[in-house]
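Researcher: We're teaching a course module on how sequence relates to structure. For the next exercise, students receive a sequence and then see the predicted structure as tokens, so they can try to spot secondary structure elements on their own. Here is the exercise chain.
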Amino acid sequence: MENREDLRSITGLLALRLRSSSLLWPSDVVDALKVLSRGPHHSRVQSGEVLFHAISDLRNSLGISAEQLAPYASEGYAHFFDELMSVDESTNWFGVVIPALADLLLRFPSLLEAHYQHADGLQHRALEGVKTGLRLLESQEAGIVLLSQELIGALLTCSFFCLFPITSRGAKHLPTINSDKLFASLYDNYTEKQENKIKCIIHYFERICLCMPVGFVSFERKVLPLEDGPVGVVYPYASFWSNSVVSLCSFQVNRSGLIEDQLSDALEIDFANKYIGGGALHKGCVQEEIRFMINPELIAGMLFLPAMADNEAIEIVGVERFSNYTGYGSSFRFSGDHVDKKEVDVLGRRKTRIVAIDALCSPGMRQYGLECLLREINKAFCGFHDQSKHKQYQRLFRDNRVCDVQNDQYIKTVGSSICSGINEDCLGIATGNWGCGVFGGDPQLKSIIQWLAASQALRQCISYYTFDVEPLQTLEQVTGWVWSQKWTVGDLWNMLLEYASQRMNRETELAFFDWLVPSLSFDDMPTI
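Model: And here is the predicted structure for the students to work with:
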């Protein structure tokens, strides 16, 4: 066990000890967890205040107490469990859930050992020769980690109990992983949305303690290499896009609805922070953070996925949804249990595919410059493309130029994806106003960039959720008009470049849609 490179890369991020080829908790921690697992009559843990004392004792036994938790963390745990939780909920939490979570922590070492044994024994053709063990997926290291939902439950329990060492996380460019900031902010700056974020997490723990899920979740770092290599497509230059003759894929506009509620098997886009999860375990409560609350298994990736570089994306397949919700931002509210009915693929994962791509933050006028346009379209392309299609991509984009071959000729020849374990030929993209909220991007620009990237990635369609923002009121008509012109990716990209150049040089103040089709009546324009 101690000779495993994957385990060695993650050991410093876990509080477990490795001795005589076995993973284990220190004996004091085992004793404390055994007491917790026997229930409140033995542990006396029946309030948030006492629970935090138990957490502190565990951290002391692990030797990580010097790594101070967030100010007011203790008050936050006490406030939620002693004041915001009902008597009935509290009785169930301390009488049933906490003992079950303690038992899960006791089994954590054996679950992790079994994980590594299973990672070595995977025989499925989609993962033949592919490393899947839990490890630090470093920047520029394309790779995949496959975890059972039960092991993820144990990891999230470590997060709840604040048992992850954090000393080396900053140097490794890793996001927050313990839950202390989540609870601390509930006390020092109470908001209803923060309370309801925690309700989602608590509901997840209640669900897995009632019935532990038996599926799997994969976490994949996708990389567009900056230099030529034996596998994959390299990071494209501007000429790559200008010369593309790939046909534009179909474009469907949804003025209502949510990405996570779409019924197809499309890739669902996470408008991510470069540190995956963003403020999920802090005060954040916009698109990415909400997704991490209703699908808490996403949080596990925050343990071992460092910040994304400009040529990287993260794809997560198989997470289960546990909660329903209403609202957004300050109006976010937990609204009860969600039963996830998504089908399961051959690797035991739900057919929920989430792709995290981070947009430029507060780009202002810079977003119309070539460097930023190229960064954004390549970021989206990295997230949207399927690395298993690299042979098709290489033929299509050989020598960083596009051959005169149409999209559908290649779609018919594509094999199964390493990440999905199933054929992805018919998978589209479900997305929306990526980088256009607090990040400040131009919604019209971003919608077109994503259309171009999806088309170049050989996706058959893009399903775009506008959330009814004003700049996209004519999106359906404009995309319909472009489609009717039979433009290629290169045609539309070059039009975008011309417009962006005029914006940068102050030659136009028009929005892109008005600039592109100024003389047409939108009422008479076709739709796709």
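Model: If you want an answer key for the exercise: The chain has 18 helices and twelve strands. The CA atoms of residues 435 and 441 lie 5 Å apart.
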